[in-house]
Amino acid sequence: MRLDKNWWAARKAYVLWVVIVFVLAVAIARYFSAHYRIAIDTQLVPCLDARVLLIDLDDPKPVIGAIFAFTAPESASPVYPRGTLMAKRVMAGPGDTVSVTAGGKILVNGTEIARGMPHPSLLSLQERDRFYGQRLLKDGEWWMVGESATSFDSRYWGPLKEEQVVGRAHVIY
């Protein structure tokens, strides 16, 4: 069986095209995995109005009002093991005064930013008192809050250290 030269030339061009597309796909995938992560929230009751987030690892400096991903602080255990990836909205930063009232109001510099703290109601009066009060955030401390009143966030485990921030989270869905 004899093959036509044009047949081989067409096959070579096709193989070259497939190799180029494959190399480009691998390069794009490597770049993406070095700079981004996809996070999927599987909670039954989400704390943010988002199910899928794109985390930009190159943007780790918290910005008030934006959503950021971070590793769970030690004070979040045993609910979340240390190092668990979480995402919340940054509501206060260094120099801000945060107040948590017994009525469940969370204030930043006197302005209410969130309401609701159902979890301490399960505790004794003495145990509840440790959640309430006022604090001035130090350099490198950030106050992270979910959009849901049932969110387990800084109102329970306190400020987050800046070195625990992984990157800015953008809502995809």
Question: How would you characterize the overall build of this protein?
Answer:
- There is one protein chain.
- By secondary structure, the protein is of the alpha+beta class.
- Helices cover 23% and strands 31% of the residues.
- It has three helices and eleven strands; from the N terminus they run H-E-E-E-E-E-E-E-H-E-E-H-E-E.
- The protein has a seven-stranded antiparallel β-sheet with strand order 1-2-11-3-4-9-10. A four-stranded antiparallel β-sheet has the order 7-6-5-8, with no helix packed on it.
- A hairpin with a 2-residue loop joins strand 6 (105-108) and strand 7.
- The longest helix has 31 residues, at 5-35.
Summary, kept brief:
By secondary structure, the protein is an alpha+beta fold. It has helices at 5-35, 125-128, 154-157; strands at residues 36-40, 52-56, 67-71, 85-92, 97-100, 105-108, 111-115, 133-136, 141-145, 160-161, 165-171. The chain is 23% helix and 31% strand.
Give the total of beta strands.
Answer: 11
What's the SSE pattern? HEEEEEEEHEEHEE
Please state the average pLDDT score. Answer: 88
Shape: elongated
Report helical residue fraction: 10-25%
User: Low-confidence runs (pLDDT<50, min 5 residues)?
Assistant: none
Taking the alpha carbons of the first and last residues, their distance comes to 56 Å
Calculate Rg over CA atoms: 24 Å
Strand order of the largest sheet: 1-2-11-3-4-9-10
Task: Give the number of helices.
Answer: 3
Structural class label: alpha+beta
Largest sheet, strands/sense/barrel: 7 strands, antiparallel
